[in-house]
Amino acid sequence: MTSLKQHPLVKCVALAFVWASVLLIPKLVSAEDWQVQVGAQSHDKGRQVIAFLPNEVWIHAGDSIAFTVASDEPHTVTFLTPNQVRLPFSVGCPGTTPSGSAEDGSSCVNSGTLTNGQGYSVTFPTAGDYKLVCLYHQNHTAMIHVLDLSARLPHDQEFYKDEAAEMQKEMLSSADHMMDHDMDSSADGVTAGTGAIVATGGGSDTLSVVRFMHPDKIVHVGDTVEWTNDDPITPHTITFGAEPANPIPPSANVTVDPDGALHATVSSQADNVHSGFIAAAPQDQIGLPQPLPGITRFRVTFTKPGTFAYKCVLHDNLGMLGKVIVLP
Ligand SMILES: [Cu+2]
């Protein structure tokens, strides 16, 4: 005897129902919520992937993207309006806009500072291409392509998840190689951070090693130690003693050598010596004025024996610490 489940009529009705739902799906699909990771880091926080992972996505008008920060280095999720001049993160749009804000190019959208684990959501009501930036970091951008509902999307969330994981793995591994290279090449001085700018069709990212290579430097009284920042983007400081309220300028006891490098003397653990921002100059861009040379080197002459601890005030939370051991 045929059970009710196997009855041909029941099968027919069930099949018709399946077909009806397939046909109805496009109309019933609600706006999709996509996921994009912001930043990534090594376990010891010493290597930072300063990127939107992925940095290019295709979505439908009406969809939203949930951005989540995954590094101790802070970031912002910011959409400036076309031709808006970029100002420091503390200025923002100016100011911030709430999570869930709509980006359609007509006004600025800005999360403000986001730290590890924090999220921010943006909806995209109108088709168009929207450039995303982080106000903390230069060359940290992404592109959001918003297509009409009728357009077919090239990738699904699973694809982007894999792509993000791959980007993270590759960039952390490149940072490892850079760190090894700088450990070898900075025998005479101390490399204060290194990094690289990486580009895709969607924008640019940077990877940054936030470490002093040879963090325990041994010298003799009268010697001068030279720190060089090899990172094309990320500034660092070399700071002995108290942390200044404004980390950008050097302390008053710092002088300038003939080659533009900054120079100071440390003779006691009580000395407060601060390099200010040691950073590369922004590179040439057509249509913009020629930038001044960057100050990428800081020198300290040690006149007394002892152990002198120092740090980068921008990245000490990530473990960017060092010491100079001065022997008689
Ligand atoms: Cu630093």
How would you portray this structure in words?
With 328 residues, this protein is of the alpha/beta class. The protein has 2 domains: 33-168, Cupredoxins -  blue copper proteins (Immunoglobulin-like), CATH 2.60.40; 215-327, Cupredoxins -  blue copper proteins (Immunoglobulin-like). 15% of the residues lie in helices and 35% in strands. It contains 2 helices and 21 strands. The protein has helices at 8-28, 157-185, and strands at 33-41, 47-53, 56-60, 64-69, 78-79, 101-102, 109-110, 119-123, 128-133, 141-147, 190-200, 203-212, 216-220, 224-230, 239-240, 255-256, 262-266, 273-274, 297-302, 306-311, 321-327. The strands form 5 sheets. Strands 6-8-4-1-2-12-11-14-19-17-16 form an 11-stranded mixed sheet, with helices on one face. The protein has a 3-stranded mixed sheet with strand order 3-10-9, with no helix packed on it. A hairpin with a 2-residue loop joins strand 11 and strand 12. It is elongated. The N and C termini lie far apart (102 Å). Mean pLDDT is 90; it is low at 1-5 and 12-28. Copper (II) ion is lined by residues 193, 210, 236, 312, 314-315, 320.
Low-confidence stretches: 1-5, 12-28
Total count of domains: 2
CATH class of the largest domain: Mainly Beta
Strand portion: 25-35%
Mean pLDDT: 90
Helix content: 10-25%
Name of the CATH homologous superfamily of the largest domain: Cupredoxins -  blue copper proteins
Strand order of the largest sheet: 6-8-4-1-2-12-11-14-19-17-16
Q: What is the radius of gyration computed over CA atoms, rounded to a whole number of angstroms?
A: 26 Å
| Distance linking N and C termini | 102 Å
Number of distinct beta strands: 21
In CATH terms, what is the fold-level topology of the largest domain? Immunoglobulin-like
Bound molecules: copper (II) ion
Largest sheet: 11 strands, mixed
Question: Helix-strand pattern, N to C?
Answer: HEEEEEEEEEEHEEEEEEEEEEE
